[in-house]
Write a structure and sequence with these properties.
Blueprint (H helix, E strand, L loop, with lengths): L1 H46 L2 E6 L6 H16 L2 E6 L6 H13 L4 E4 L5 H12 L4 E4 L10 E4 L2 H18 L5 E7 L5 H14 L5 E8 L4 H14 L5 E4 L4 H11 L7 E5 L3 H9 L4 E4 L2 H16 L7 E3 L3 E4 L3 H5 L2
Parallel strand pairs: 1-2, 1-3, 3-4, 4-5, 5-11, 6-7, 6-8, 8-9, 9-10
Antiparallel strand pairs: 10-12
Helix pairs in contact: 2-10, 3-4, 5-6, 7-8
């Protein structure tokens, strides 16, 4: 009888143990399921496509198209959706409206050209306060709370243009250099910085003075018109300088119209195909070229770093270089 009781007791203990083992297995399976769900959720969150808006200076500006193309390639690499918008013609007020709309649509990130003005600064700050990171590209908005600036050091590149003019005219033996300058815009801080950098160099260069300055409004036609006006008003001008992409070719057209090719030497900015071809023909002396593709890729990379929790520096300067007769052949190669 005692043996039977022990047998029953052991059987009962075995059943209890088996029950507990089954319950533990169920509990473990549930925990494992929860862990998988959390991991899947985290993975899905990580793989969500961030919607980023790029607001260009002008939709069809070749410089900004290059930025946009490179940014789109980088966005695909980092699993972002890039939306490219901008005014059809240079219009800071329209850029401001587009920035406001992007904020209202609650996008994940924005990169823009900086625009001078309190309202634009206020909108950048508004975006940042709402958790929408803003990266300025090509032109900074240093008084805003923007995340970082990606682009050329515009003061330094303007100074480089001044150094080129000073060295080139000295090498040519020009004793009196009278410079006419066409800048892209009075509203774009990058243009003012380039002008300031240029002035800072030539003010100490012997024999160089600035005869006059006019504005192209980022238009080849207006660059031509402004250059013609300067050359007619100041017949002493023997050097013309442009600080935005379309200024150099516009100046060249004005010089040809007035038949001043033998008198006026032209120095440009950026590397439009027409500018490079004119350098190869000897019609433009040199140009300072920026790296718009580098700007586009880097702007997206900076946003990706932010989304991943990285720390960004306040300014991320991209490279620039000088293109003249000595190296233009490489730039023209297919």
């Amino acid at each position: 009888m005692n043996d039977r009781k022990w047998t029953l007791a052991l059987a009962a203990i075995g059943l209890v143990f088996l029950y507990l083992l089954i319950q533990f297995g169920v509990f473990y399976a549930n925990i494992a399921g929860i862990v998988r769900d959390i991991a899947d959720t985290a993975g899905n969150k990580k793989n969500l496509r961030h919607h980023v808006v790029m607001i260009s200076q002008e939709l069809d500006n070749p410089f900004w198209r290059t930025i946009g193309h490179a940014a789109d390639e980088a966005a695909q690499e980092y699993n972002m959706e890039l939306e490219y918008i901008g005014p059809f013609r240079l219009n800071p007020a329209e850029q401001t409206k587009l920035l406001d709309k992007a904020i209202a649509s609650k996008v994940d990130g924005i990169f823009v050209q900086g625009v001078k003005g309190e309202e634009y600064t206020r909108l950048i700050n508004k975006a940042m306060e709402r958790g929408i990171p803003v990266v300025t590209v090509d032109t900074d908005a240093p008084e805003s709370k923007r995340l970082t600036y990606v682009g050329t050091d515009n003061f330094a590149s303007g100074a480089k243009l001044g150094e080129i003019v000073a060295a080139s005219t000295a090498r040519l033996g020009m004793k009196a250099v009278h410079v006419g300058i066409i800048i892209g815009s009075t509203e774009a801080p990058n243009q003012q910085l380039r002008l300031d950098g240029f002035r800072n160099v030539v003010k100490t260069a012997p024999g160089i003075d600035i005869a006059g300055i006019d504005v192209s409004n980022i238009s080849r036609i207006q660059a031509t018109q402004a250059a013609e006006q300067l050359l007619r008003k100041h017949p002493e001008i023997n050097v013309m300088v442009g600080t935005s992409a379309l200024d150099g070719v516009g100046i060249l057209q004005a010089v040809k119209t007035l038949n001043l090719q033998q008198k006026v030497r032209i120095y440009a900015f950026d590397d439009l195909d027409e500018t490079k071809q004119a350098i190869a023909r000897g019609e433009i002396e040199a140009t300072v070229i920026q790296k718009p593709a580098e700007m586009g890729r880097e702007a997206i990379r900076q946003l990706h770093m932010y989304f991943e929790g990285g720390t960004l520096v306040r300014n991320h300067f991209t490279s620039y270089e000088v293109l003249d007769r000595t190296n233009v052949g490489e730039a023209l190669s297919p």
